[in-house]
Amino acid sequence: MSISRLKGWLAHPLTRGRNIDSPETTALRRQIIDSKPFLKRIYEDWYSKVAEAVHNISTTLPLLELGSGAGFLAEKVPKLITSEIFFLEGMKIILDAQCLPFAAGSLNGIVMTNVLHHIPEPALLFREGERCIVPRGKIIMIEPWLTSWSRFVYKNLHHEPVDEANTSWKIDGEGPLSAANTALPWILFARDRKEFIRRFPSLQIKEVTPFMPFRYLLSGGISLRNIFPGWSHGFFRLIEFLLSPLRNQLGMFAKIVLIHKPKDS
């Protein structure tokens, strides 16, 4: 069976044939996460990593979550402003991440899960982060990451483009979700790391940690049917822990943490 036929057979019935850029599709994705215990535990792991990074931010200002969509981070992190680029029930604000409607120094930080690689001009987001985030605040991201293993997976089994040759840091396309470059986080914080530091000297790259080599793949993600039952998640999590010394060769995602440095530092 060809890879394309296999993906068609595994496609989740709730989203098969639907417009990926439709708000209704994003709403359906929350149903899918809730119906797939294995996948939901992956999201809980991601959110635990975000919550851990948020924990030691000292101010009482709110946090902004970009692309809240189908997620449930607000259940794990207090004082979170949920947002989306289109109207979606339950969102606190509709906004464009490239032009944030917040005053200077009014945010404790910005958090996002699988969002950065969809932003058309990420440099605009980081400029807005420099403006809106209080000194010592953070930008915290869980994003796809390129390794020897993940390149094969993303290029052959995933629907989003992987453009490693991109030098502009910009993403072509019109749709908020269909326009994407899975390679973008790796480009910014690995291939072009020195250039990022030069352009955004006030945003210190505190952490880039690859992780999760195969659990998301085994879950089927949001677009595919349930592949493994929820009770098996703990076993595969243990296997990934044992493989953690190989995270730079096997990781499919990365936890990325930036700290907004005070001007006098």
Can you describe this structure?
The protein has 265 residues and is an alpha/beta fold. The protein is 35% helix and 18% strand. The protein has 10 helices and 7 strands. It has helices at 3-10, 23-35, 37-54, 122-132, 148-157, 184-191, 193-199, 215-219, 233-242, 247-250; strands at residues 63-66, 80-84, 93-94, 107-113, 133-144, 203-211, 253-260. A 7-stranded mixed beta sheet has the order 3-2-1-4-5-7-6, sandwiched between helices. Helix 6 (184-191) crosses helix 7 (193-199). The longest helix is centred in the first third of the chain and has 18 residues, at 37-54. It starts with a helix and ends in a 5-residue tail after the last strand. The model has no long low-confidence stretch (mean pLDDT 91).
Question: Brief description of this entry?
Answer:
This protein is α/β, with parallel strands linked by helices. The chain has helices at residues 3-10, 23-35, 37-54, 122-132, 148-157, 184-191, 193-199, 215-219, 233-242, 247-250; strands at residues 63-66, 80-84, 93-94, 107-113, 133-144, 203-211, 253-260. Helix 6 packs across helix 7 (193-199).
